[in-house]
Design goal:
The chain is an all-beta fold and about 120 residues long. Strand 5 and strand 6 form a beta hairpin. The protein contains no helices and eleven strands.
């Protein structure tokens, strides 16, 4: 239901753009977001955007990352600039999808982001 793409290897200070597309019999998409999990650490929220377009960011990425959504395409993107080595992690997208009258939470498969110094 969710397909993430865009990860890769980048140097410190570089940029990457992650994209996540939802598919299926979707009536609407409520909140969408990006999370990450670094080795040995718990999964954490990076950025979340509501259906109304309100975005919230983790303190560590504020001013560097931008989340956006395109409801016509059922996608959510994460533009990551000024990447730091601490941003290295597997990034997961998450979306609350309204299917008929029921909301389901889906996770994408994860995409690796590696920032090298």
């Amino acid at each position: 239901q969710l397909q993430a793409s865009g990860g890769g290897l980048v140097q410190v200070g570089g940029s990457l753009r992650l994209s996540c597309a939802a598919s299926g019999r979707i009536s609407a998409i409520n909140s969408m977001g990006w999370y990450r999990q670094a080795p040995g650490k718990q999964r954490e929220s990076v950025a979340v955007i509501s259906r109304a377009g309100r975005a919230n960011y983790a303190y560590s990425v504020k001013g560097r990352f931008t989340i956006s959504r395109d409801d016509a395409k059922n996608t959510v993107d994460l533009q990551m600039n000024s990447l730091e080595s601490e941003d290295t992690a597997v990034y997961f997208c998450k979306a609350d999808l309204l299917v008929s009258t029921t909301t389901f939470t889906y996770w994408g498969q994860g995409t690796q982001v590696t920032v090298s110094s």
